[in-house]
Amino acid sequence: MAAIRSFICIDVPGEVKAAIERVQAKLRRLPVEVSWTRPANVHLTLKFLGEVEEARLGRVGEVLDAIARDCAPFELVTDRGGVFPTADRPRVLWIGVRDERGLLRALVAQVEDALAQYGFARELRPFTAHLTVGRVRSERSARELARLFLAEEFPSHRFRVTHLILMRSDLRPDGALYTPLHIAPLQERS
């Protein structure tokens, strides 16, 4: 049976994607090899599942539906830029996401706990809510890129989370192609 590369995420609105695209346009002028995230592909990853047998993905959708039934829509806010692992050796450029009420962190914990019951390994690193802007491919001028990126004023955008998405990821030479496999709407509590 074929395995499907997949992850669980939250989509972000067009104005956030457009703001990221503007930042990327400024930074593209630097002589640095960066694989820039296509603005249409920008999302907030809750859990990367990796290669999953197709039959198991139905169960993941059911888990997301159950979690979404008990979770009202909530708001997040974009924050400033950051880098992984460090500014001296940047590999990933990202925009942070503030979870002012702790609801995202609680949601991620629910996803981890529920999927662990079905044999999915828990993420060992602490969760950092972020939107990937680009992945650095060469160390040449990377430190300068990180300095400029971290100094960039990224506008704060408040957005509403209304769905959990199980996403398929097909890696292609021209970039990843993402296809929603299951969408679980968060339920307004009465």
- Give the DSSP E fraction (strand runs of 2 or more residues): 35-45%
What's the architecture in CATH terms?
Answer: Alpha-Beta Complex
- How much helical structure, as a percent, in the residues? 25-40%
Largest sheet: 5 strands, antiparallel
CATH class descriptor name:
Alpha Beta
How many structural domains? 1
Distance between the termini: 42 Å
Number of helices: 4
CA gyration radius, whole angstroms: 17 Å
Give the CATH H-level superfamily: Cyclic phosphodiesterase
Describe the structure using short key phrases.
190 residues; alpha+beta; Cyclic Phosphodiesterase, Chain: A; 5-stranded antiparallel sheet; 4-stranded antiparallel sheet; 4 helices; 9 strands; globular
Describe the structure.
The chain has 190 residues and is α+β, with helices and mostly antiparallel strands. Helix content is 28%, strand content 38%. The protein has helices at residues 14-27, 54-69, 103-116, 142-151; strands spanning 3-11, 34-36, 43-53, 74-85, 90-98, 130-136, 158-161, 163-170, 177-185. The model has no long low-confidence stretch (mean pLDDT 94).
